[in-house]
Amino acid sequence: MSENLHPSSTNPSIGAGDAGLGPTSHSYISQRLRLHYVDWGNPTAPPLILVHGGRDHCRNWDWVAQDLRRDYHVIAPDLRGHGDSAHSVSGDYSLTAHVYDLAQLIHQQGLAPVRIVAHSLGGNIALRYAGLYPEKVSKLVAIEGLGLSPAMEAARANRSIVERLTTWIDEERALAARLPRRYASIDEALERMQGENKHLTPQKARYLTVHGISQNEDGSYSWKFDNYVRSFAPVDLTPDERHELWSRITCPTLLVYGAESWASNPEKDGRIRHFGNARVVSFERAGHWVHHDRPEDFLAEVRGFL
Fold this sequence. Notes:
By secondary structure, this protein is an alpha/beta fold. It has one domain (3-305): 3-Layer(aba) Sandwich (Rossmann fold). 36% of the residues lie in helices and 18% in strands. It has 11 helices and 10 strands. It has helices at 62-68, 95-109, 121-132, 150-157, 161-177, 186-196, 202-212, 239-248, 266-269, 290-293, 295-305; strands at residues 24-30, 33-39, 47-51, 73-77, 114-119, 137-143, 213-215, 221-223, 253-258, 278-283. The strands form 2 sheets. The chain has an 8-stranded mixed sheet with strand order 1-2-4-3-5-6-9-10, sandwiched between helices. A two-stranded antiparallel ribbon has the order 7-8. A hairpin with a 5-residue loop joins strand 7 and strand 8 (221-223). Helix 3 (121-132) crosses helix 8 and helix 6 (186-196) packs across helix 7. The longest helix has 17 residues, at 161-177.
């Protein structure tokens, strides 16, 4: 790793934990893929998994992990095709594949019953897992993890299977021809990161950028995630099937939303009725990344809930 990419150059306090130690890197195998995760130590404490969202990486949780590691054995995986995890040779980034990966991590490491805090795509994955294996999840926090709003679901339902499949094939072909974007410098990639979230401080945006890019042989930088993660599977569970999984979740569930986000609040759109033991909390002055936009208040809410 080059000197410019060292975490201490962006924020000396993040990545340092007990005795000045940050997380250790590990891997596990799922469907022949070597998937990466970081372990924040404290192995005798109750296990807690942090699951990131799409086109993100496990180190986006460092501020949360740094706080919660005092009381929990915190593990944060990189989803397949993200961060330092392997890319799927077939380009399979369906939610079913992600759920299997999470199931394998929990199974192989003997983490159940486990607490889970998850964001966006990660929240969708965690909610499905908790519905499949309700006895294996003791507490669940999902930050904007319910997926498409009912209005968007209705629009999708109006598209025929032929239209959905042919559109997906066209998207896959376009992604096959698309080369990963190359940035001349970290600062150039940083501008892209800051454009995605207006609430990020320059220091935090740089930290997330540093952990989200890798340096190419020619000296340029590219995001670590696989371009194929941009494509959504043309076939997924139906809304009724997802609602059935949500209704099977037995653990206390906290659904977190940002008041300035594009995501639809389940208390307002009615989806909360599919949960038996859930409540919604909304944060003002926050968008889709609530844990970045309101970190202190988010941690206070989550710590009390856990």
